[in-house]
């Protein structure tokens, strides 16, 4: 069955710059001496690494690079996963001529490898290592069938060899103090790239994050802070996590500033509650928000919906503006919140089906299960000139939300399958979904199951059934529609 139609871990290569203006009163950054043990210990461990090879001549002297690179009190919000990062290498500037021929994947790698071995420029060598990791992710693996097992094994082995070559090269560069390589290698380990059985290895990642942080990498300092906060590859130490976050925040890292803001709001990481300081950090983070770190925009929006005495005043218009900025960065919770506001006319928003559906779509494309289910309701009734009514689409969106674990969506899929709304009636499938919903505490599903025990064939209607697919007044315009009447 086709999927529903759309009406419409960390970026490992970016480093951010900035100054410490205005941040010095929030505690000192970690001392350089704190990192010496990691710096020396990691280099020694890598020198003894039996997996290392001599891709580069060991006679090259090592060098150190010092680039000039630059739970909320309102909602107890949780940092959601960010959208996938952009492609690591951007070759959009290349424009082949009319007579140009595309090189094969293998030939491109060989040419790149030959150039990387000739140069002594660590940045070019690093770029080649990143290219190999990126290529390994897109390397095609044939379908595993009884007739081509050897072909599949060779393809997998080829991909693993490519990753191994890249990791070895990154190790060489990291040993010589190349900061981007230290961070990128740490990110690989943290994401299970180049590790045993593809498992995350923070024992190897954390020391590298610390090394890169020592050399001024803001993302590395932030990641080291998350490791210390959660005990990934090190002991759980809130004071040390706080030091790393402050170090990253000094370079205007939006994720670090957001975490400091939430910590001040809630009194976390050994800090006392200070809403005023927390809001200051959130505002700084919001000013530097990215698609990877849009969280401060969303948090500030929620705070302006409710207000904090003597700190944040209630301002619905500004709240909606912040949510819109966050939604345009692809942050699903903000988009879903806007979808609700424009559907029901909340927080000073007009009731606008087009905008409601637009924002629900943004959230649904990020896999937000409540947004997917909200589209089910819209498709059931449709909206003239905006969205055509479609039982099939309604079913598919409900199924998507149900597969994501939403109990009320499981109930809806069960009922749709029972009655035959948007799909072929299938009693067995219906009972399966009812059981899943009932296991999660959905009382209506339990009622339907109880009815099935008393009758060989469940009849439409009765306890827990869908009452109507139109609005409360019986029209299908969708204006003022009550989703309790539609599905619940």
TrEMBL record:
InterPro entries: Chitin_Synth_Reg, Sel1-like, TPR-like_helical_dom_sf. The keyword Repeat applies. Residues 1-69, 449-488 are annotated as: Disordered. Residues 1-24, 60-69 have a biased composition (Polar residues). Residues 476-488 have a biased composition (Basic and acidic residues). It comes from the Eukaryota. Pfam families: Sel1. Keywords: Repeat. PANTHER family: CHITIN SYNTHASE REGULATOR SKT5-RELATED (PTHR46430:SF1), PROTEIN SKT5-RELATED (PTHR46430). This is HCP-like protein. It comes from Cylindrobasidium torrendii FP15055 ss-10. The lineage of its organism: Eukaryota, Fungi, Dikarya, Basidiomycota, Agaricomycotina.
């Amino acid at each position: 069955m086709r999927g529903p139609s759309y009406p419409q871990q960390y970026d490992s290569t970016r480093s951010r710059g900035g100054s410490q203006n205005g941040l010095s009163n929030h505690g000192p950054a970690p001392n350089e001496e704190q990192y010496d043990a990691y710096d020396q210990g990691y280099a020694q461990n890598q020198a003894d690494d039996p997996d290392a090879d001599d891709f580069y001549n060991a006679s090259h002297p090592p060098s150190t690079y010092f680039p000039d690179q630059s739970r909320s009190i309102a909602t107890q919000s949780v940092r959601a996963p960010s959208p996938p990062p952009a492609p690591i290498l951007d070759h959009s500037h290349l424009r082949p001529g009319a007579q140009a021929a595309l090189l094969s994947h293998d030939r491109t790698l060989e040419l790149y490898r030959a150039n990387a071995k000739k140069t002594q420029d660590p940045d070019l060598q690093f770029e080649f290592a990143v290219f190999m990791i990126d290529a390994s992710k897109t390397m095609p693996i044939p379908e595993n069938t009884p007739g081509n097992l050897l072909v599949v094994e060779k393809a997998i082995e080829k991909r693993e060899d490519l990753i191994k070559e890249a990791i070895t090269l990154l190790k060489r560069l990291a040993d010589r103090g190349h900061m981007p390589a230290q961070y990128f290698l740490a990110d690989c380990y943290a994401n299970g790239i180049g590790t045993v059985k593809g498992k995350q290895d923070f024992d190897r990642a954390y020391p590298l994050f610390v090394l890169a942080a020592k050399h001024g990498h803001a993302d590395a300092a932030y990641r080291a802070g998350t490791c210390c906060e959660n005990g990934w590859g090190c002991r759980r130490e809130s004071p040390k996590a706080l030091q790393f976050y402050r170090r990253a925040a000094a370079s205007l890292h939006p994720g670090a500033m957001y975490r400091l803001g939430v910590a001040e709001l809630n009194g976390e990481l050994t800090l006392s509650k200070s809403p005023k300081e927390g809001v200051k950090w959130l505002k700084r983070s919001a000013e530097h928000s990215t698609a990877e770190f849009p969280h401060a925009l969303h948090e500030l929006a929620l705070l302006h919906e409710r207000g904090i005495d003597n700190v944040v005043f209630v301002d619905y218009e500004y709240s909606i503006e912040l949510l819109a900025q966050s939604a345009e960065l692809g942050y699903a919770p903000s988009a879903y919140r806007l979808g609700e506001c424009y559907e029901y006319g909340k927080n000073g928003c007009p009731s606008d089906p087009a905008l409601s559906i637009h924002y629900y779509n943004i959230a649904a494309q990020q896999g937000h299960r409540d947004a997917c289910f909200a589209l089910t309701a819209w498709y059931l009734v449709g909206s003239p000139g905006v969205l055509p009514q479609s039982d099939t689409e309604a079913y598919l969106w409900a199924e998507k939300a149900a597969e994501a674990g939403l109990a009320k969506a499981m109930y809806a899929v069960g009922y749709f399958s029972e009655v035959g709304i948007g799909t072929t009636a299938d009693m067995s499938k219906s009972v399966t979904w009812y059981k899943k919903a009932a296991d999660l505490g959905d009382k209506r599903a339990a009622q339907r199951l109880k009815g099935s025990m008393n009758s060989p064939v469940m009849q439409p209607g009765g306890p827990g059934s869908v009452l109507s697919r139109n609005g409360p007044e019986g029209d299908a315009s969708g204006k003022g529609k009550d989703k309790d009447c539609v599905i619940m």
